[in-house]
Amino acid sequence: MRSLWLALATPALVVVSGAAYAEQWQFEPTANLETGYDDNVRLTSSSDAEAAPHVNLDAGIRAIRMTEVSDVRFALGLAGNWYSGVSDLDNTSGFAGLDLGYRLERHTLSLGLSLASESTLTSEVATTGLVQVNRQQNTFTVGPAWSYLLSERARLNLAANYQQVYYEDVQDLPLYNYRLGSVDFSGSYSYTERFALTGRISYGRYETQGPTNDYENVDLMGGANYQLSATTSLSALFGLRRTEATIEDVDQSTNTQNSSGPTYALRFSKSFEAGGGLRLEARRDLMPSGSAEVLDTTGLAANLDVRFRPRWQFLLAATAYRNRQPDGDSGIDDRTYASVEPGIGYVIDESWRLAASYRFRWEDRNELDSNAVSNAIYLSLNWTRPSGL
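Predicted structure:
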């Protein structure tokens, strides 16, 4: 584990050192201290619920350097979580990301690199739901992209993505290392300043270690973007997918399964004059997971930030997932999950912010007779140094 933290920290020293000697560099450090109490910290059935208070401390830094034709962005974050009475849940996490961009008259080139380490207490929320035991998930991602401006109205985009995910000490859990890659080709045409048509075709491949399962998927989608007003926008993509899976059976023989289904992505956003805004999202696509399979996932998300006083704000974050097998059969990972977290924030000054929130979680697994419910409260203090200071 120590080698991973060294890999996370080394590039940060390079970027921040550069910031000290280049006037065009800007960087923004941040730190957050949070304490909370959860009456079902492992999100199990009520008969096995385990309550625990916890403390979270994290710190990070963002750096950016921009010119007329290029930009460099870097982010680094480290966090520690400690639970009273259940020390086996204590964990650390970290993230390092680098984004490079270069612009010509018609071409735009970009490259994203990231390395992350996260506890399975949080990394499995959207997929397997195996959040009862603390193990480490490590992820490396690289994503190059190219965009070409055909005319004032038309644009073409080509993007690739490769991701390697591996787990530590999961011999007692049904979690398996995997890798995935994808290529997306898309285009857009603006009929007016407010309305644009978009289309996309993508290919993805998922491979897992343990049981040697492979999934190949092709998506074809089309839709539109519409700027309703200066502060409100709406986008919608609808399409179909075709998936071929090669599954390894218990006797190490393989069989091929073909499936198809709908896929979509809907987004709505609105900014408020006083600050903050509303963002809504609904999507359905195939989600890679550590359970040696991809999952047909329907996801909903909502984020609301309302500034009702100069220093006060109301915050709401909500997510929901419905995971199923791509071929429609029932499986152990079939589940429905929802989380709702309202909160109140208070801006002390330009650097300090205080927040209090309540979080409700609910999960229903098809294979179990009972649901899991969790209630938690949080109090946090955040410090951010304004960019460029």
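Summary: Confidence is low (pLDDT under 50) at residues 1-23.
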